[in-house]
């Protein structure tokens, strides 16, 4: 989202609370997928389950097992990757906030002058207002 009120034109605004909320949603999707990954991993069948009196029993079994293994791997990876994506969004939001706090403190320090002895410190007359976090 851009505003045109900044000194150099458009300012970038990052809504870190929204990033954290989205991160939580991805983590929940990961948790929701965990039982599916476990169930697919447990769907093992022996070759005898495919015996119908024909010599292709092991072909049918191998086809089933390779597909089951593929799907189990996909769901297991999904659990991990969805959680990692959620973590990345939350870490990015925290990083934006931490960098913003440091930059704000640095900018405010530039515009602060030492207060005369015995007086409260504050912004000198004519200095721009304190930057907000």
Please explain how this structure is put together.
Strands 1-2 form a two-stranded antiparallel sheet. It is rod-shaped and about 100 Å long. It has helices at residues 16-41, 57-111, and strands spanning 2-6, 9-12. It has a domain at 18-102. Helix 1 (16-41) runs antiparallel to helix 2. It starts with a strand and ends in a 22-residue tail after the last helix. The mean pLDDT is 83. Helix content is 61%, strand content 7%. With 133 residues, the protein is mostly helical.
**N- to C-terminal distance:** 17 Å
Order of helices and strands: EEHH
- Round the mean pLDDT to the nearest integer and report it: 83
Shape: rod-shaped
- Percentage of residues assigned to helices: 55-70%
- Strand arrangement, largest sheet? 1-2
Number of continuous helical runs: 2
The amount of beta strand, in percent, is: 5-15%
Output the structural class: mainly alpha
Low-confidence stretches: none
**Main sheet summary:** 2 strands, antiparallel
Q: Based on DSSP secondary structure assignment, what is the total number of beta strands?
A: 2
Q: What is the radius of gyration computed over CA atoms, rounded to a whole number of angstroms? A: 29 Å
């Amino acid at each position: 989202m851009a505003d045109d009120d900044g000194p150099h034109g458009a300012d970038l605004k990052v809504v870190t609370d929204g990033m954290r909320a989205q991160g939580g949603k991805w983590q929940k999707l990961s948790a929701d997928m965990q039982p599916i990954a476990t169930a697919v991993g447990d769907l093992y069948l022996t070759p005898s389950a495919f015996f119908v009196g024909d010599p292709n029993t092991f072909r049918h079994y191998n086809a089933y097992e390779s597909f089951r293994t593929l799907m189990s791997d996909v769901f297991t990876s999904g659990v991990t990757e969805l959680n990692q994506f959620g973590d990345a969004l939350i870490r990015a939001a925290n990083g934006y906030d931490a960098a913003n706090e440091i930059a704000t403190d640095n900018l405010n320090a530039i515009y602060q002058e030492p207060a005369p002895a015995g007086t409260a410190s504050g912004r000198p007359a004519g200095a721009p207002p304190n930057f907000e976090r």
